[in-house]
Amino acid sequence: MNRSVFGKFLPVFCLATVLAFPPSIRAASLVPLPPAPPVPSGNLMTKDKIALGKKLFFDPRLSANGSISCAFCHVPTAGYADPKPVSLGVGGKRGGRNAPPVLDAAYFPVQFWDGRAGSLEEQALGPLTNPVEMANPDSRSIVTRLRRIREYRILFARVYGGQISIDHVAQAISAFERTLVTPDSPYDRYLMGDKNALTAAQKRGLAIFQGKGRCAACHNGILLSDSAYHNLGVPQTGPMRVDVGRYAITHDPMDKGKFRTPTLRNVALTAPYMHDGAFRTLKEVVDFYDRGGGKSPYTKDSLIVPLHLSAQDKKDLVEFLKSLSGETRTQLSYRASR
Ligand code: HEC
Ligand code: HEC
User: Fold this and answer.
1) Residue 182 burial (CB < 10 Å; 0-12/13-18/19+)?
2) Does the Cβ of 274 fall within 6 Å of ligand 2?
3) What is the pLDDT of residue 293?
4) Residue 329: its pLDDT value, please?
5) Is the CB of 16 under 6 A from ligand 2?
6) What is the phi/psi pair of residue 86, to 5°?
């Protein structure tokens, strides 16, 4: 992450720090609902741009054979994640990883399980030319295809006042993605001071999440993610039998097997779980943590140890995780009106 990116996201980090404190410390200062994600100065949000980005996100003509849109793998009813353990791209080719939710992804300072993209704009270019995803040979071919579509010529001219370019495609999609936020989950309302927003079981689950479950050590802030990388020893079930994770980016041997802590927002909607979709249910995930994670040839995170939770504790924890789903604000008016 370079400095300028950090600067852009500084307000989020500050708020994330506030939210990371246990409720006792936080109680005095009322925490506001999560603010809208940061918007880079080079890609301001306008109503027309968001509408164009939405159209592109759902348009299979962006893929080489006209069959796969972004939404094919980021399914709106599944929290904009993929219900398949690993994604299938053009021609049924299998990728190595589970598609994470695009919902609330705009809050992450870096994108992907290994953090290899520094922004949504940079991220969007990835799947378009990835051979196992949308499989375009290069960005030129996408631009050529879109320029032949009259409707896009009109829409791009309206937003950008000129010819279609790949950067404008990425920008419009990113502007749309920044509207995909869910700031009003029961947990958010609870943090705001509505003590009835969580059920009794969810409140007990929250105590375990912050206490003996140690979950909040890594899952904290707006996203319930520290945006850092950890190795839990998740079983390697994907077609990429050995996925070294963050190591492929940094080449630091200590990063072997580490993946970015995913958001837990809307986690009840985004099964299956983990970078390779190894677990089908939240119960399986909680059982995995309870037994101290999995085996790994690499150094495992020191926080991942057997937790000795009771059956009731585990149920409560799962109930708490269900309180993290909010309403999707795809209404174009939401961000564009500012
Ligand atoms: C064939 C399936 C597939 C298609 C099509 C696809 N994605 Fe993804 N997407 C994935 C997978 C798999 C990952 C995780 C890859 C990784 O981390 O290495 C991902 C990651 C992402 C992320 C990162 C989220 C995060 O939390 O880090 C965003 C944002 C995203 N995709 C947006 C898009 C957009 C925009 C498009 C269309 C231009 C698109 N995707 C098309 C499968 C797909
Ligand atoms: C050491 C940091 C750390 C701790 C502690 C931790 N997690 Fe995680 N969590 C992660 C990372 C990293 C992943 C992704 C791992 C992977 O895919 O290899 C993850 C994945 C998950 C997922 C899957 C989300 C998805 O979209 O795939 C859930 C659910 C989850 N954690 C819940 C919990 C709960 C509940 C606890 C406490 C019992 C907990 N975590 C403790 C770091 C942590």
Assistant:
1) buried
2) yes
3) 96
4) 60
5) no
6) -125, 150
How many residues would you count in the chain? 338
Query: 331: left (phi > 0), else alpha (psi -120 to 50), else beta?
Result: beta
- Residues 266-298: tens digit of each pLDDT: 999 999 999 999 999 999 999 999 999 999 999
227 lines ligand 2 (CB under 6 A): no
- Residue 324 corresponds to which amino acid? L
Q: CA-to-CA distance for 111 and 115, rounded, in angstroms?
A: 5
pLDDT the model gives residue 292: 97
Model pLDDT, residue 2: 38
The tally of CA atoms less than 13 A away on the side-chain side of residue 211 is 14
Which pLDDT score, from 0 to 100, does residue 132 have? 82
- Ranges in the chain, pLDDT < 50: 1-31, 331-338
* Euclidean distance between CA atoms 229 and 275, whole angstroms: 12
Distance from residue 17's CA to the centre of ligand 1 (Å): 27
Q: Which residues contact 4 (CB under 8 A, 6 or more apart)?
A: none
Assigned token pair, 97? 């990883």
Distance from the alpha carbon of residue 219 to the mean position of ligand 2, in angstroms: 7
List C-alpha distances in Å: 134 to 85, 143, 153, 158, 168.
18, 14, 22, 26, 18
139-156: pLDDT as tens digits:
899 999 999 999 999 999
> What distance in Å separates the CA atoms of residue 213 and residue 201, rounded to the nearest whole number?
15
Of residues 244, 246, 270, 279, the one with CA closest to residue 260? 246
Ligand 1: does its nearest atom lie under 6 Å from the Cβ of 79?
no
Peptide bond between residue 38 and the one before it cis (omega within 30 degrees of 0): no
For residue 258, the Cα-to-chain-centroid distance in whole angstroms is: 16
127 alpha carbon – ligand 1 mean position (Å): 6
Nearest to 158 by CA among 41, 44, 51, 70: 51
